[in-house]
Amino acid sequence: MSQAPKYKRILLKLSGEALMGDDSYGINRATIGRIVDEVKGVVDLGVQVAIVIGGGNIFRGVAPAAAGMDRATADYMGMLATVMNALALQDAMRHAGIVSRVQSALTIQQVAEPYVRGKAIRYLEENKVVIFGAGTGNPFFTTDTAAALRGMEMSADIVLKATKVDGVYTDDPKKNPDAVRYQTVTFDEAIGRNLKVMDATAFALCRDQKMNIAVFSIFKAGALKRVVLGEDEGTLVHC
Ligand SMILES: Nc1ncnc2c1ncn2[C@@H]1O[C@H](COP(=O)(O)OP(=O)(O)OP(=O)(O)O)[C@@H](O)[C@H]1O
Ligand SMILES: O=c1ccn([C@@H]2O[C@H](COP(=O)(O)O)[C@@H](O)[C@H]2O)c(=O)[nH]1
Fold this sequence. Notes:
Pathway: Pyrimidine metabolism; CTP biosynthesis via de novo pathway; UDP from UMP (UMPK route): step 1/1. By secondary structure, this protein is an alpha/beta fold.
């Protein structure tokens, strides 16, 4: 008998940098294939999946060119990078037999549908994966904040942050080997301790709307499925 998922509708935030694999920037084909397989594992459980994709893998690659640029212009470049990732993800999903739709917060109508909340919800109800590109559509924000925002707009049961580390730590585990992972942490503590796994705007939005966030590693096989099944995996950030 198949297991029943704890969450019926999820908003999955995928780190752009995770798509690089071991490359220094861009999209690694094998890595995106593995990530799509993880997503397929939860789609096959009947879970409705909306995705916000980051842009770090492309945007950090053009960072030297962006240095010294007007901030808003650089941010629009960053948002366009997320649209490229959204298209790559959709293509990889098509290869894996997953039906998906891309909606962009910036209007690029030859490339992607514009973001329309009602239409996105309809797609989810039809069990199509919805990939949101271009973040919030506004400079000075991040795709973490877009994930919080879209999660609420989609009435998702939870926001899942799939990243390169396996949870929220007392400090950045990539810089501090003594950092300790939380099993659970409150929004107030995450904000108060300035834990940088996610930006404070995203944490504050989720706290105010009582939307929990689960943080886990997208590189750990089966971790996404375990989170969706309500098993002990990663870190739960809660009110
Ligand atoms: N307290 C902490 N706990 C866990 N990770 C932390 C913490 N502080 C900083 N980090 C770092 O935050 C990073 C989160 O990066 P991630 O790439 O998922 O974010 P992002 O900037 O939203 O994504 P993108 O690559 O799309 O820009 C982790 O790789 C980790 O090194
Ligand atoms: O709502 C948004 C989302 C993103 N940006 C810009 O895009 C890059 C890439 O996003 P990440 O969240 O870092 O993956 C970000 O650095 C911003 O420059 C934005 O302006 N508004």
